[in-house]
Structure formats: structure tokens, C-alpha cells
Amino acid sequence: MPKPIEEIQKEVVEEFSDLTDWEEKFQYLIELGEALPSYPEDKKVEEYLVPGCQSRVWLYPKEDSGNLQFLADSDTALTKGLIAILIRVFSDHKPQEIAEASLSFIDEIGLSKFLSISRRNGLNSMVNLLKNYAKNPNV
């Protein structure tokens, strides 16, 4: 059984609290993105593009035993790291858990303060799409 979403968020906050400055945090985000599983080329289509992102971000949901799992990719390293964190928090959970989750960790690790406005908007678009998939899980 997967860890609760709140517990995963706490782990992410702890990992980021060990990093001393934003250069280290951005480097860590890039490393998280590099560690994402490969994204299927046949899913790099308009249907799975996240609307509202300056970068191209693909997000593919699939259902497995009542839980949602997500695959993602992006054409920029930092954005790929952002979606990697969101996937880590949300994947392998029931749609209702995802839809109802608060995402306090985004503010706790400082992403809202240190991302540019366009990246912040893109992050919000990714969160909204993940939650929309949870609210309409017929993927």
C-alpha cells in the first residue's frame, strides 16, 4: 500500500530543507526530472500536453486497481523536475485522495516564491490537470 499523500509531501519538504540555497534546490529538481521513467513516444501528443505551461509538458494518466498512476515528460529540465515531484506525491493513489489533497508542500519548500511567474503558472496548470484527472478518472 502506498504511503499517504501527506507523508510523501513531508518527505519532499525534508529533502528540500537539507538544501541550503536555490541553486542546490534547482539542481535537485533537475535530478528528479532526470530520474523519471521514460515517457512513451506515442503519448507525446496534443491530448496529453498540459495547457498553460510555457514549456511542453506531457502528462499521461492510467488507472491500475483503482489507483491513478502518472507518466510525464517535459522539454525543459526544471519543468521536468517539477512534474516529477507532483507525480511522486500523487501516483498510486485513489482519485478521491488526489482530488482532496492539499498541496502545502509547494509553499513549504518555497516554490511559489522562487519560481518565475510563468513557471508558477505552469506548476498550477500541472496541479490542476492532475486533480482534473482525479475528478474524472475514466482515463
TrEMBL record:
Q: What is this protein called?
A: Fe-S metabolism protein
User: What does the sequence similarity comment in the record state about its family?
Assistant: Belongs to the SufE family.
Organism this protein belongs to: Leptospira ryugenii
The record's section on Gene3D superfamilies has: 3.90.1010.10
Which SUPFAM superfamilies does the record cross-reference, listed alphabetically? Answer: SufE/NifU
Pfam short name (any one): SufE
Q: Which residues form the Fe-S metabolism associated domain?
A: 13-132
